[in-house]
């Protein structure tokens, strides 16, 4: 029996909870040892919990590769009465080569949807690791689209605010989101907000 994508996600959720509750520790992990003054403020058990979960996650990624278990989950996004069904890689799984092909095939429809629902919105590029934003125009986004392999969309909204974020990425999505795999994997984030508003995410 081979575990399904959903089963692997459920297993990781359970394991993460066990690690956070201190039921799993990687006892081999210690504080840095570089600066004793700083090390005294770092809780060793927190590092050990995190390391235990990361070790388990790597085992699941190996299992994915060995058994060709997809990391793709399908999401639905509705904005202004328009709906998009699109694939993403689960945050805790990796994308197989076949998954990357699915993400690449969905890129154009995701971008077309984003362009349609953000037509009259102000655009900002996330810079400095998301700490700052730079105003950009649609032609700037078009140039970025040409350099990327896949696209993801996230919406943040309430009764008074709407922000639609377009992630334009390449390589492994898990590595691209946090710049771990740069330059092999990476992404740019374009924030669309109502005119006169600023990004908050």
Care to give the gist of this entry?
This protein is of the alpha+beta class and 201 residues long. The protein has helices spanning 5-20, 36-39, 44-67, 97-117, 138-146, 173-177; strands at 72-79, 82-89, 122-127, 132-136, 150-158, 161-170, 186-193.
Largest sheet geometry: 5 strands, antiparallel
Structural class of the helices, strands and pairings?
Answer: alpha+beta
Spans where pLDDT lies below 50 across 5 or more residues: 25-29
User: SSE order in H/E notation?
Assistant: HHHEEHEEHEEHE
- Shape category: globular
* Strand order within the widest beta sheet: 4-3-7-6-5
Protein traits:
alpha+beta; 6 helices; 5-stranded antiparallel β-sheet; 201 residues
What would you note in describing this structure?
By secondary structure, the chain is of the alpha+beta class. It folds into two domains: 5-67, no CATH class; 72-193, no CATH class. 39% of the residues lie in helices and 27% in strands. It has six helices and seven strands; from the N terminus they run H-H-H-E-E-H-E-E-H-E-E-H-E. The chain has helices at 5-20, 36-39, 44-67, 97-117, 138-146, 173-177, and strands at residues 72-79, 82-89, 122-127, 132-136, 150-158, 161-170, 186-193. The strands form two sheets. Strands 4-3-7-6-5 form a five-stranded antiparallel beta sheet. A two-stranded antiparallel ribbon has the order 1-2. Helix 1 packs antiparallel against helix 3 (44-67).
């Amino acid at each position: 029996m081979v575990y399904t994508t959903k089963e692997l996600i459920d297993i990781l959720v359970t394991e993460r909870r066990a690690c956070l509750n201190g039921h799993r520790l990687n006892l081999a992990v210690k504080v840095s040892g570089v600066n004793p003054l700083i090390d005294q403020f770092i809780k060793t058990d927190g590092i050990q919990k995190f390391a235990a979960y990361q070790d388990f996650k790597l085992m699941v990624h190996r299992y994915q590769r060995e058994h060709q278990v997809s990391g793709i989950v399908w999401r639905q996004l509705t904005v202004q009465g328009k709906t998009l069904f699109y694939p993403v890689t689960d945050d805790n799984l990796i994308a197989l080569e076949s998954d990357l092909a699915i993400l690449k095939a969905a890129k154009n429809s995701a971008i077309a949807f984003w362009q349609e629902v953000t037509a009259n919105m102000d655009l900002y590029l996330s810079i400095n690791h998301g700490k700052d934003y730079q105003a950009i125009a649609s032609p700037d986004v078009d140039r970025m689209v040409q350099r990327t392999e896949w696209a993801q969309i996230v919406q943040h909204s309430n009764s008074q605010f709407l922000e639609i974020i377009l992630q334009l990425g390449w390589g492994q999505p898990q590595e691209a989101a946090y710049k771990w795999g740069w330059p092999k994997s990476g992404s740019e984030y374009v924030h669309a907000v109502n005119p006169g508003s600023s990004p908050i995410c």
